[in-house]
Amino acid sequence: MSTLGITKLTCEYRSEPLGLGTERPRFSWQLTSGRMHVLQSAYHLQVAGEEGDFAGDHLIWDTGVVDSDQSVLVEYAGAALQSGQRCSWRVKVWDQQGQESEWSDTSYFEMGLLRTSDWSADWITPEPGMIDPQAEEEFLLRKAFHVSKDVRKARIYATSLGFYELELNGERVGDWAFTPGWTSYRHRLQVQAYDVTDLIRSRADNAVGAALANGWYKGNLAWENHRNLYGDQRALLLQLHLEYADGSTEIIGSDPSWKASTGPVRMSEIYHGETYDARLEAGGWSQPGFDDADWTGMVKLDHAKDILVMQENEPVRVIQDLKPVTVLRTPEGDTVLDMGQNMVGCMHMRLNLPAGTAITLKHAEVLDSRGNFYTGNLRKAKQSVTYICKGGGEETYEPHFSFQGFRYVKVEGWPDAEPLNPDRFTGRVMHTDMPQTGRFECSHELLNQLQHNIEWGQRGNFLDIPTDCPQRDERLGWTGDAQVFVRTAAFNFGVAPFFSKWLHDLKADQREDGGVPHVIPQVLDDNACSSAAWGDAAVICPWTIYLCYGDKRILEEQYDSMKAWVDHIRAQGDNEYLWNTGFHFGDWLALDAKEGSYVGATPRDLIATCFYAYSTSLFVKTAEVLGRTEDAAAYRQLYEKVAEAFLIEFVTPGGRLAAHTQTAMILPLMFGLVEGEVQRRMAATLAEYVKEQNHHLTTGFVGTPYLCHVLTENGYHDLAVKLAMQEDYPSWLYSVKQGATTIWEHWDGIKPDGSFWSDDMNSYNHYAFGAIGDWLYRAVAGLDLNEAEGPGYKRIRLRPRTDSALSYAKAALDSMYGTIRSEWSLTDVDGDGDSPLASYEFEIPPNTTAEAELPGASIATTQVNGQPADQASGVLSAKEDDAGTLKLELGSGIYRVTVQQPSPALSGA
Ligand code: BGC
Fold first, then answer.
1. Are residues 414 and 555 in the same domain?
2. Distance of CA 437 to the CA centre of its chain
3. Nearest-atom index, ligand 1, CA of 761
4. pLDDT (tens digit, 9 = 90+) per residue, 486-513?
5. Smallest CA separation from ligand 1 atom 11, residue
6. Domain co-membership, 107 together with 170
7. Nearest atom, ligand 1, residue 701 CA
8. Is residue 755's pLDDT more than 80?
């Protein structure tokens, strides 16, 4: 495969997306080649009509040959794209030696409805006198219609107030769950587009049906049993666009001629579960021949259409199935299925029981110390699903409009006469369909389980928005949690569309004064906003997405929001360079908190001022990236003042800190607020503190994510590894040793004596402390990027750090350019245990370059792919620095590197 090829064509991060809402879609592709060191020097991209015919007069946009190395997120700049327009596209590239590829395969993208004026349909809701808008049952809506011609193409565009599920001629439309997703509903409501060409019947009768439930729009939301937070009526807005073979078109839209009834879902709530009475099923309700004579009428609802936006992130759907690993009989006599994994989604059941039998499933995360089913930590969330059988044969069911967070499922109502066969139950794991992009593994089984737990924490909590927890009566988009985890998240899964959507909602919900609500979408009190490290999500999240994907648009889109946040901080209190006023969560859940408090001991104004400086520094970089030089200069000055004010207020000239907590040292070190001798002293003190605690942390949400990074970066990597491998409480591996399969909210969610942290706030699936994942990838395996020279991994930084506590570590990331790998292993050649030899394997995708740093290696002792280090193919340069580190400049390719002398980091260890 020495020839240059092209693969993985995506448009707006997705393969052949349908229903795009952006008028300037961006194209990405990856290069393939069997040669080493391949760079793109030019590309030629063509967009044509849906026929995929690129002959001259069919072209919609033709870039010609563009001298550019850009292969990621190339923005469309042709004539305005129209609503519903379907286009084909292809690209060819040249490498730096002038070799030309073939044209890529043809790919497609399709626009959604771009303008409010595209909507001729009405918002409709069942006639209130006939069906109580507050009824708990699902509403079923239907419309029968005749298609008199041959259909070439059919699309449905739909959205709702509340959740909807669609059927066309008796078949489910799409497999997406919880549509239309959760956004800042007053400002933005998503529309989904579906290709229903295969479901529509030409020259025949047809029918479309929609089921509506409360969902985030009007169901219980936020912990105090709040309801109707956005409105108190469910409604549907739908257009079916038919394109006939003769070129004519027709739209069937929602209007008052539709009919309504209630359905077998008797109750459905996100927190509480669902009740389904199969005896009430109206067979064929979404089929054309169905008799809807006793269904009621519908009325128009006056609701905005200028808030409609096309779906921005990947949908939520069932991603995988898990089978129960055992059936338990608890001491209290309950029958409980153990799924073996704390998961989010729902249970599917296959039943064959008499009519009227009610099977109830209750969901819990843990069993108590005696092995009994425990639901105390769910607070008011019932997580209870009941199915009432219709009888007469095999029946299958899974909830439609509710999800549960659980590992254990208590089965109630199972007939005594019938043995419970666990094979009748399947766990349906649901989350946003983000592609898995990262893998980390090492020689330590417990760390591998930690990585597993971090990934599952992300699966469970990336359900359309980044939630804090998926089980109790909360499940909200806490900004602080999202901010601490975003970098880890962007390793494990592709999260650019996911965060872009959520950030658009952050911007929409941001207050006039620039304040940022604690949760996005905002559903708490107006004044629940603007805590340090929570509101900073407004700046940290877009910046991180830019870094990890090279996505400048998210910076452009969020620019005003980022700036407003920094300005908001500046306007607080009486000293514009310190942030010493307002409400702050502080180092939430830190172990140095006073008895009975959730707030750690680190002074809140210290934390707040550190984040003020950090957000300002990221905003300066953002302004620089976007070429906004005036802002860059003005905010650089602001940053310098804040940094100076911080030192005056919190650090003595000799480098002592006013506060004596781990987090108080972690933040200034991480955010670069101290340098030189002060930095050295602070890092040494932090290391002392950790050692004094017998290698334990005391940090909470704010300090924990950075703790190991700061130690590694300041020369204490061995200590960071010790901390990460600590198994006693408190530590990351403590929960792993306790059998956790996800990350816990509290370091001691289950205490060493088996008792629980109190019921009031004790989630077993809370990703925040999983933010250490970022350090596993970047510091242990050494897979990182060079921020200044090439965000989005255009310029890769490999800094593998061998450590005698591990014999190997490896990380891989499917970046926008292709797979990057960084792996190391230690081999104890002479068996004496103290002088192992290091070897490395790196994979660098085409159109990127990498700098690899190998401590303790030299040109003379290092072989690359069996050649001397400075002569191997793909190695662009090899240099040794004064500190005894070999620095290799690598082009794309796969490199096996062996170092023929013991690593100095180890020989002394
Ligand atoms: C949530 C958190 C959140 C915190 C803020 C909790 O209830 O679960 O993760 O950040 O409140 O106080």
1. no
2. 11
3. 7
4. 999 999 999 999 999 999 999 999 999 9
5. 478
6. no
7. 10
8. yes
